Amino acid sequence: MLNKNEIVRYSRHLLLPEIGTEGQEKIKRARVLVIGAGGLGCPALQYLTAMGVGEIGIADFDKVDVSNLQRQILYFVDDIGKLKAETAVSRLSRQNPFVKFNKYTVRLDNQNILDILSGYHVVIDGTDNFATRYLVNDACVIMNKPLIYGSIYKFEGQVSVLNFTDSSGNQGPTYRCLFPTPPLPGSVPGCSEIGVLGILPGIIGTLQAAETIKIITGIGNPLSGRLLLFDALAMSFSELKIERNTGWINNAPKSAAELAKTDYEYFCGNKTSESSIKSVSVETLRSILGNSSEIQLLDVREPFEEPQINELVDLQIPLGEIPDQAHLISKSKKVIVFCRSGQRSKRAIEQLEKDFGYTNLHNLKGGIMAWTISSSNSPLKERGDMHSE
Amino acid sequence: MNSRVRLFGSLVEIVGKSELNVSGCSDTQEVKEKLASEFPQLRKCEFLISVDRKLVKNNQRLEPGNEIAFLPPFAGG
To answer: Are residues B76 and A383, on separate chains, in Cβ contact within 8 Å?
Structure first.
């Protein structure tokens, strides 16, 4: 129920037949978690607070830096050095005293995320790194919560409503249906490395807030199954149709227990494993390929992934099907496991060693990418030294 | 066959423009391979591929007039 002050405060919403008292009460009952109180999080938070979302969680462990003020308009000069989540709560509480705020100033990880998410209906992704994006996506999939995705690059933005189940029970795509494999570390620079137009996150973050309110109130067409692309230089929006990809979703942890064991920093290549997995280089593999009776090659990529290398065609089991087809893998031969970059094959080996007792598995370092590079004798040139062949 | 390829994000910096024409490719994998041989830095990049504004899951055959897009993930928030 809305009180008298709220009825006055939200009168412009109440005038809209699409929202009205019923919609505003839904907004009041809603609990939204905003992950990252930076460029995207700030505008989303300010509008969600203004519009009267009943309970808002703010997850950010970072402190306000002077370089944030160019785009994070919730913070002032005298906030520099203070925790963003705390500063945001104190400012937003003054903006709308009818909203309850919860702050999380710990770094989100595979141990705490499910607990934090469990109290919310909708999650907004305003993070600035891939490890957290995959972590948040996978947690939302496990807990069946819609994820309002936004990301930015210089003058461009992407927005979508991920993991959304419509009223007929149809499930929409997830982040892994867009980008099944994280980019190599350093290959996609962030705002702090390459810069960003100050107003860009303002535009993308407010779009995320708009989608959030639509989902809460059930009005309009949510941006599910569509990826919205914004280009501030061209001042144009375009859209891609996107679909669920069950094979790629199956590569994600499927339960709370699996998620708690998934190392997202490692998955995103930000650190190397501390485990003692044996590996071979492409040069070594090339030299032993002749003894094919003593080795087995296991490709854990999806069947359609390119390139397929004739010399390496042997046994193919996509990562998600490893447990069901483990019996096909030799326990006596030297088994070389590979994928595109060496990440998924490492996971396959970890699983096979742990659950099936394998001791004869070797990871192909750098995967097919390293193989094709060494085959073509055209080593990758560093940026700035591009050439045509 | 000529195909128009739109590029986004960091891929624009690698290729030097946001749009280009590729000829003689009959499917998306060939387009990817052709551009990667010209701009080897692309081999290090993850990106989704769309044809006529629809994400393709597998390699897809191309028809005349198809518009292809390469879209990388963005990190920033």
So the answer is: no
